[in-house]
């Protein structure tokens, strides 16, 4: 019946899929731009044309501060009675792994002859990284950010503006990350011919999930080399937090072929794993653990959605994990069993935050604190040699942590009521 | 049956130049939508697109985003939408315009949800387009438009539409060129939806230069072409038809009427009048191309 169509053999006409996931579900107007980007990605990133990757690595070294250390966490190792190493992405310029991707994409846009950069941001970490990269490479830059996030992440709004970026508040819906992505896609659909959209995670239409992963893969590449040097072998398990999944894929990618290395993606369990369909609310962002397959923001992936297909408002104490979707490659790796999905709730993450601050002198981002919360809960399952990715530093989260800690009786927390005294 | 492949194509060819109107179903309620659709039908619409609201409408400008939010807040569901279509009896064939995830999830309401799955084995529920397409056909819809489904990803939906006698209408953007344009134009089903300008939906003051360029570029393809994105006035309709379009598509200007009318009755009257203005405009544009003294344009009403 359908013999007149071009591609009867399954996926032959589709590109950029990971098993059942991925693809390019975008308005027609963007398809030529995705093809142009795919072409540039193959030439510059995969084939190092014009020395693109050499320049990228050099800038990540001089401007970004790579490589970041892999540090043995002495007191955590004692506490859990195994070797625990921390990958210190919190030491990257900007305070998080986000720069790896932002600098890569802004540089690529420059090689492509684009004249303008746009990006979405939730908590503001991707926005600040993009603003820095754009200032560094002298490109005009506009950031879309939900009004709610603008109001609760003031310092990041100032940082972006200091770097010369324009910050456009988005008023629609709950005015957070999801709405910011919608609005950035609308801008891109209008200005696509001269503008590049720097997506902040391994989400969106092909080639973004693959390309962002490749820019972030330096994390896992370095870990592999560093752990061999320090421990003489590959780890038994690697743990990273997962929202959209860019630090997760960046950390895991090099280890995917190493079947003996367990890979654990720790999501935000929020306050509960239940969904309130009538309110359109999921008080978590545990997409890999609880989501169902669907299409959001250009890709088939796992989603938090109602039975009708409306996307839920997700929630996490950590703004950077607060997203109703997840990268399609992670969905695939979970589906095939290569990556184990896990989740810890807000409280476990807050305890993880305080514990690392007190025991190791490192204030981690609330995102990364989820991985540390999981380590506390499940260290026994992780083998003798564990690597945890500390994806970012927690300075940006201090106010939230103080507020959330006061509400709770947390075992690992200091008495925050005396902080102001 | 007509000489054309589909009801949708016949509606455009036989009523040339055709008026295609859009409103968002459920804004402000499905009962009102029924009255509005009937008004658009009386006003001379040759095809009517009904928007089935999705929470992330990335192709829409502010006007239709707001309408979608009102419809969702009013509790509009796919099943309610189909029941509305079951009840509608219009002369104009009806199309549904919605986002791909709504099509994928329909009929999957038995799928396990997070609350049931959190601790257990997760049974696999693969999304499938067929339940939606079958229900659409049963309700009497003639076609589907999906703004976030490019031709490259459309194979499963195209097959389901073929099997159920529905048209799957594709959008041609100002950036669609070369081989891709050829490939999409060779698969046109119903009509080619020509996007007048880059960007999102929304009423504009002028017909864009991109519209003229697009119609010029498409003139060699013998398929019905209808132009949308930004069309809001009779004069626009005239200019677009004169430039070679077989139809005009108007959405945001009508959604604006729904949003700005004091009562549903007032909205009904204004929608019908607006449809007449647009249809008249389209006809006058056609006359500039082919003089037909029998059908002179009526004077513009204030």
UniProtKB/TrEMBL annotation, chain B:
It catalyses: (1S,2R)-1-C-(indol-3-yl)glycerol 3-phosphate + L-serine = D-glyceraldehyde 3-phosphate + L-tryptophan + H2O. Its EC number is 4.2.1.20. The active site is at residues 49, 60. GO terms for cellular component: cytosol. Pathway: Amino-acid biosynthesis; L-tryptophan biosynthesis; L-tryptophan from chorismate: step 5/5. Transmembrane segments: none annotated. Keywords: Amino-acid biosynthesis, Aromatic amino acid biosynthesis, Lyase, Tryptophan biosynthesis. Residues 278-302 are annotated as: Disordered. It holds the Pfam family Trp_syntA. Residues 292-302 have a biased composition (Acidic residues). One of its GO terms (molecular function) is tryptophan synthase activity. It comes from the Archaea. Tetramer of two alpha and two beta chains. HAMAP family: Trp_synth_alpha. PANTHER family: TRYPTOPHAN SYNTHASE ALPHA CHAIN, CHLOROPLASTIC, TRYPTOPHAN SYNTHASE, ALPHA CHAIN. Belongs to the TrpA family. The alpha subunit is responsible for the aldol cleavage of indoleglycerol phosphate to indole and glyceraldehyde 3-phosphate. This is Tryptophan synthase alpha chain.
